[in-house]
Amino acid sequence: MTAAANNSAVLRATNVRKTYQLGRLRVPVLRGVNIDVRRGEFVAILGASGSGKSTLLHLLGGLDAADKATTDTGPASIEFEGSDLIRFSTGRLDEYRRRRVGFVFQFYHLLPELTVLQNVTIAAMTAMGKLEYWSKRGEVRAHASALLERVGLGHRLQHRPAELSGGERQRVAIARALVNKPDLLLADEPTGNLDRVTGASILDLFTDLHKGGQTMVVVTHDEATAARADRVVRLVDGSVVAA
Amino acid sequence: MYQFLLTHRYLTSKVMPLLAALAVALCTAMVIIVWSVMGGFLVMLINSGRTLVGDVTISWPITGFAHYEELIKRLEADPDVAAATPTIETYGLIGLPDGRTETVQIKGVDGPSYTKVTGFADTLYWKPIDTPHPKDKYKDDPRLQNHKLWEFCFEGGKNLVRYEKPERGNVAVERPAVVLGVSVSGFNIREQWGFYPGQARARQPDGTTKPVNTILPVDGSVTINVLPMDTKGRAVDMVARTFPVANEFHSGLYEIDHKTVFVQLDALQNMLKMNRATRVATDSVVTTNAKGEETFATPTVLGEDPARVTNVLVRGKTQSFESKAADALADKVAGIYRQFAKDFEGQVPSSTSIRILTWEDQNRTMINAVRKETALVLFIFSFVSMTAVFLVLAIFWAMVSEKTKDIGILRAIGASRKGVAGTWLLYGAAIGLLGAVVGFAIAYGVVTNINAIHEWLGEKLGLYIWDPKIYYFSRIPSDLNATHVTIVLAGGVLASCVGALWPALRAARMSPVRALRFE
Hints:
The structure holds two protein chains of two kinds.
Chain A: E1 9-22, E2 25-38, E3 42-47, H1 53-60, E4 77-80, E5 83-84, H2 90-99, E6 101-104, H3 116-127, H4 130-150, H5 166-178, E7 184-188, H6 196-211, E8 215-220, H7 223-226, E9 231-236, E10 239-242
Parallel strand pairs in A: 3-8, 3-9, 6-7, 7-8
Antiparallel strand pairs in A: 1-2, 1-4, 4-5, 9-10
Helix pairs in contact in A: 3-4, 3-5, 4-5, 5-6
Chain B: H1 2-13, H2 16-51, E1 56-59, E2 65-66, H3 68-77, E3 81-95, E4 101-109, H4 111-117, H5 120-123, H6 147-159, E5 161-164, E6 173-176, E7 178-181, E8 201-203, E9 209-211, H7 216-219, E10 221-226, E11 239-249, H8 254-259, E12 260-264, H9 265-272, E13 277-280, E14 286-288, E15 294-296, E16 301-305, E17 308-309, E18 311-316, H10 323-343, E19 355-358, H11 359-362, H12 364-385, H13 387-402, H14 404-412, H15 417-448, H16 450-461, H17 482-509, H18 512-517
Parallel strand pairs in B: 4-12, 7-11
Antiparallel strand pairs in B: 1-18, 1-19, 2-17, 3-4, 3-10, 3-18, 5-6, 7-12, 8-9, 10-11, 13-16, 14-15
Helix pairs in contact in B: 1-15, 2-12, 2-13, 2-15, 2-17, 3-10, 13-17, 15-17
């Protein structure tokens, strides 16, 4: 754990369950997961394919809803700064994703029609009203450009994603995730689609961000990636086996 | 804000939505063109129907009413009235030079004052012209030559007289004459190019035509037969009189041009016994003088019956096609007539019985028929244009499927469901707006050049949809009305938004996780 991490849990998931309904079949993916993430901490969730780690990340990021039913192990909750995401309205969850969380995906998920700069500023647009964005558009662009400069893409602002390498695309995704200065950065296999060298440079970037005090949760199946974290949570068949 | 950015990017980087815009454009253009042509047709009909009736008509049919000169004086004293004129309308028979007899509507008019109230002078056909008809490529129109002859015809037509050579001296003799509707005689067969040839032709039973020697405005005459009525509405003996033809008129409405004859007012008053007359006692026609011989007694004069007319036509100072303007003038005229009827109580029809009609009232049947036809055609074309909604829907449905991952990304970075739906609706509106603007441009190009396009089609393909031999307007009318265009353009945008609505809702309802996993 770095010096930046402190004891207050910014995110606390308790007894989290998720079951998917596939036709008549109910498939439990998460079976009562408990996890804490402290402010400034870099947590890696390590697990094999199908262990439920991406699902857990989606629940922590408010992209998907956990099961609400109370079981014999108690009620489920995902508390972010004391508020339970499971009880959030759709609008409040949107607000949570807009302002408090930044996502980085394995397959980058950039909008192909937009330039690199626009792919970053669009996240800021979602967080602002039309008038607010219009009045601050200069600042927003400058901030987005600075972020892209920081991830090494200052010279690629007007390029389209199709003109970038995998590593560059992931850097754009990281800049997008950071543009609204989120409390929590959630990354789902951020190096899973990259070669070893490029993957390592992305992890270096994460390490730098963490050193700057960014709270992060990274989902991975790669031990080397997990080794960069302050703490590793191992997930097997939807349950935490070691933290 | 991101909605605008994405709409702009999608619009400029995709071909598929441009097909949706094209569908909207074609539908918009189609409806604007149809509405403009039908609207133009209606305006032309209204103009033609209004030309010969003024703005407001005071009418007491068949027997007519007296003291009209005083009524006209009072009307013309009103600041809202430009002019008024007396007319007589009746029905009669016309004997034509080829021996045919036709039933016609006969209008007795005072040429100079009738010209002030109506567009009568403009409708006179035989007059000198300097520029040929737009379609008269070979300049065959007889009115382009022999200007002096046509000038005489035109002057004669306006005054309803035929100028003839005097037996002595140099001053032309004026004979009361008639002006026929251009289709009354059946001699004027309209050319393909929209004018009547100098050589009159008579239509044969087999559909062909053959030349006839009589050019009515030059040397033709017709016999008018009317049935006079007394003030009680009882028929008196039929009266016939032969008149030279001064000119022919072309209002553009076949029903009028085929069935109307103008006669000099004085002459028709005489024929119908509606002229000023001395009333005498009829009890002592024959007396015996001092020698015991029977002689005709000097009749005892009881009084004088004033001249009568069936109508007084009024023209307002403000010329407007608005119904309200004519209604306001009609109210004014009714007020003047009320006072007039009070002053001449017992001698003229009461203000509650007299008919005061606006030009629109008089043409209501025709105007309403065309308005209904226009509405029906518009409804059909608008209904057909609804295909644009389904085209937009199908294209947007496919696009939402294609862009599922983008929707997931937007949701992941915090876009709300409303925001996602708004993106697609805004995109639909942009497609609609683009289509509507392009559609307007197409429609504007077609409507403003419709006659040139029609002519080109005729020349290249032999396709004459608007044949001047059939339609009495030789040019395809059009009226690009700003309000109508705005309605259609708004409809185009709305149709596109409606088409985009369902796909937009589908996009909004997508689960972000599933959308991100979409391959």
